[in-house]
Amino acid sequence: MSVTVPAPEPITAFPPSTRRFDVGIVGGGAVGLATAMALAKDRHLSVLVIEAESTLARHQTGNNSGVIHSGLYYKPGSLKAKLCTEGRELMYRFCAEHAIPHERCGKVVVALDPDEVGRLGILLERGRANGLADLRVLPIEAVREFEPHVAGVAGLFVEETGIVSYRHVTRAFAKVVRAHGGGVHTGAKLLGVRRTDDSIVLSTTRGDAECRTLINCGGLQSDRVAQLCGVRPGVRIVPFRGEYYQLKPHAQKLVRNLIYPVPNPAFPFLGVHFTRMAEGGVEAGPNAVLALARHGYSWRDVNWRDLAGTLGYGGFWRMAAKFWRTGFGEMHRSISKVAFHKALARLMPDLQIDDLEPGGAGVRAQAMEPSGALVDDFRIVRGPRMIHVLNAPSPAATASIAIGRYVANLV
Predict the structure, then answer these.
(1) pTM exceeds cut of 0.85
(2) What is the mean pLDDT of residues 45-60?
């Protein structure tokens, strides 16, 4: 996945006239900017967004697969189910209003053997409970009318799924925020938080700013931001890297839209799949391997503080004891193109190993309980004049506008 990173903004201090705000938001990804948009545009509050990186959407938002998720997988009644279903339609509407290239193209979820057909039925029931209207379980012959080269015994067609570039979406969010008087500042790393009688003072690399309410949308750093605020998050962010291959141009005709396997219900990752990208090309992946840094986009990226934080966490070892076989399989696919191709070829036997070339990678900010349980739902908690978004991996980009409105209601 080739990514064009926008030029960084010039690093300057906050103007003296705009150092006091109703709300300060930490994090310039989709959730942080969508929350700022809801507060500035709909609630007419003064908002400051600070982003440590030199560009917006640098991490989870800018390195995901660009899917507008339908809401198929999530437990009915959960925040994920509610906000993804609501946010999906809000995202389609926002993209249309702001001329952001996108497409409601649909996807197929494929059962590769008879044992998986029953899990397709469970997905069908869950999707209908989440309001998906046009779900269909199809025999493989009918599935091949959508994806001629797919293997398997049956499939589920999901009409509401789509594709978009969330980097474009996030920049449009920022434009709306600024148009309504909000401040969006990159290169503003949070250094400390100090409370006064009537405000919260944010110390950053661009200077200090005051706000009445703080919202933490720090993604990969969200637990640490909470700790800076004097709040015990109760979870630890454990980074998982997802690596992609790209289909070479001559092989892209093998995939029309999106092709997914039936996911493992015990693991919060969807398995390697094929995704046609809104900006062109087809991605294959991702796997899910432990990253050696919170911004660890390859095996060469090692941050000893981050790694010690993971390996020193009892919850990690409890999780590893349960999923060690899955973990080794993911690592094998990471270091072996042959193994990665073998997983993809189960979905598409016509795919040759030479059809693949290295793509990009993203890092998922996965919140983990001390018990080792991977937090499955969005985790949003309140503190004194603070709101902390502590778990917002996929489908947070899809649901970002709905999450922003939800957090604005809490404010």
Answers:
(1) yes
(2) 96
